[in-house]
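Design review, sub-item: ligand-bound model
Attendees: FS, YL, KQ
YL presented the inputs for the 5-O-phosphono-beta-D-ribofuranosylamine complex:
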Amino acid sequence: VKVAVLISGTGTNLAALIAYAREPASCVQIALVISNKSGDVEELRNAARAGIPTRVIDHKLYGSRSEFDRTIDSVLEEFSVELICLAGFMRILSSAFIRKWYGKILNICPSLLPSVKGGNAHKQVLQAGVKVTGCTVHFVLEEANTGAIILQEPVSVNTDDTEETLLERVKEAECRAFPIALQLVTSGVVRLGEYIYIIIYKAK
Ligand code: GRF
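KQ shared the predicted structure:
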């Protein structure tokens, strides 16, 4: 399955997805990496070194969100992408884009949805005093953070945690959860709107 990974950050999740794609049992091919940041992203260079095509599509160079999204869409088509992983991609995608890719966009969120949403998840967690946080991989629907949840990994909140220590531990969980969620979707075990339970039985 040809997968594109879209990033805006340092690419830790990207690295985990690339490592997963290399496993012999994986049916994932990372066909393309797109970043909207033109700066120096080490993981983007690593992807390029690994022979994965990379593109920087800087949103600031486009007059509107839909123009930016249309550019992303045409690059995805150019590489015959079948599934999109938003791995810390900090741009909101337009409705037209999300409708076109219905059931084909996965996002990772550094909190347990739907309890904690938003960009400052770790701060909210510490302020609320909740004892468990985590990460969520979900399908992307038009309304942000409402898509069906594929997988969550919980992370305990310690009394001495800071936003930084939480960020670090939640990111470790993200790097485990995202590849598993991708596997569930690419293997057909999970699809948007339905769970397909596989019954394993021993032949006599
Ligand atoms: C991740 O924590 C992701 O959940 C959030 O942005 C961060 C991206 O980090 N939306 P990285 O680029 O994978 O290091």
